[in-house]
């Protein structure tokens, strides 16, 4: 699958489209086909290397997504394949075609809310 990968902190030119392995959801996780990913202040700070985070490079940026559930990990209940969701990805990984998300970090996305708006619902409203 395609993802935007950053190998070292720096300018926007550090962001590279790359082929990466498709993630597989573990216990309590789901795989989401990403329709939109949010881009927020933390993402730009991680890219430049000034955000305090525990991840090492290379990494796939992005903390928030909207899309549809495409696979359930073991033990996941209350979510179905095809559900429209928005989610916070605590470990990043939103700038990709697919992302693994902890099921407890999902938010149902009603049909009345477009995916582009849904991608900004999980982090942006919390940063005032």
Written overview of the protein:
- This protein is mainly beta and 128 residues long.
- The chain is 9% helix and 34% strand.
- It has helices spanning 41-48, 115-118; strands spanning 2-6, 15-19, 29-37, 59-60, 64-72, 84-88, 98-102, 106-108.
- The strands form two sheets. Strands 7-3-5-6-8 form a five-stranded antiparallel β-sheet. Strands 2-1-4 form a three-stranded antiparallel β-sheet, with no helix packed on it.
- A hairpin with an 8-residue loop joins strand 1 (2-6) and strand 2 (15-19).
- The N and C termini lie far apart (34 Å).
- The model has no long low-confidence stretch (mean pLDDT 92).
Q: Compute the CA-based radius of gyration.
A: 14 Å
Q: Outline the low-pLDDT stretches.
A: none
Distance between the termini: 34 Å
Largest sheet: 5 strands, antiparallel
Strand order of the largest sheet: 7-3-5-6-8
Provide the structure class: mainly beta
Which range best describes the helical content: under 10%, 10-25%, 25-40%, 40-55%, 55-70% or over 70%? under 10%
Instruction: Label the overall shape.
Output: globular
Number of helical elements: 2
Round the mean pLDDT to the nearest integer and report it: 92
> What's the total number of strands?
8
SSE string: EEEHEEEEEH
Question: What proportion strand?
Answer: 25-35%
